[in-house]
From TrEMBL:
Family annotation (Pfam families): Sel1
UniProt cross-references to SMART domains, sorted A to Z: SEL1
Species in which this protein is naturally found: mine drainage metagenome
InterPro entries: ISR_Activator, Sel1-like, TPR-like_helical_dom_sf
SUPFAM superfamilies for the chain: HCP-like (SSF81901)
Stated name of the protein: Localization factor PodJL
Amino acid sequence: MPAQLALARLSEDNAQDQQAISWYEQAAQAGAVEAVQALSRLYFSGRASAMDRLTGVQWAMKAAQSGDVSAMMKLASLLDASPHSLAVTYLELAAAQDWPEAQYQMGLHLQSQTESTLAPGGAIDYFQRAAEQGHVLAQSALGAIYLDGRWIARNPVQALLWLEKAAQQDDAKAQWNLALLLISGSTGVKKDLKQAFVWCQKAANSGFTPAQATFGTLHARIRKLEEAVRWWQMAAEKGDSEAQYNLAMALSKGQGAMQSLPLAFEWFIKAAEQGLVPAQSKVGLLYATGEGVAADLIEAYKWFLIAADKGDAAAKTNAQRSETQLDVMHIAEARRRVKFWMVSKVPVQLKG
């Protein structure tokens, strides 16, 4: 066995991959764990062209079973393309051996499997373990969880701790979340608009869309309206609904940009279609008054109903007023459109 391993290593070093595989296979069949792990490594590195996919995966599974964390991670990513429970099994095995990337991936998996109103099982624990080992994305995720307070008691101090760690390592999402925390301040965390501006700018400059939207709002606060519009435009073009709404408001009022009611309507409707309630209510008003778009009481009523369903009080009042101006057939048509719109927004669940 030692001789076979030596010959395999020599062949591998000389890029004689087929010969290396042959020697490693002989050693592996004789029980050499190192050979099993080498075969797995060769397969995943793309050098084992003589090895078919099934054989490669079989060696990788044996390597994973021998405790090879790298093989576990590779298998998990390979199997992740299909809903195969083995992927999670190998992630769990790798996470149990304190592999931070596996712990982070397990955290994401558990978080995605959890209803938004419930605690995400062991996700927080996995994120915590990975974060403590310096995993930047885990630090960012953990900070966001403490900041959000949906799955665990909100803890601004812990949020600040983990977000700062990730932000200092250039994680844009952490920089943005840190900026949000500093903008408002909270128990144990002082409000600091100057530092919030710095962190938000870093995230915005890196191209992180939500940060660009927030950075626009920060400029609007200090009356730098043209700069605010510039940042909102960037984020709006990438689909950020808040930025689309703010840009539309600026265009409708001519603040920071030339006034254009038709262009404002285009951005309002984009935000409304994404589910932003203030935009939905505003679109209803614009259809009712004919500002920036041809007046259409049926469409106005439709959008008022959609926004009212989300709790918008003004939209509810406007829906009641609109109803008095429509006949039974038009009311029915508007409600049909509402139903169609709501159905179109329900994600399609594919079985596989």
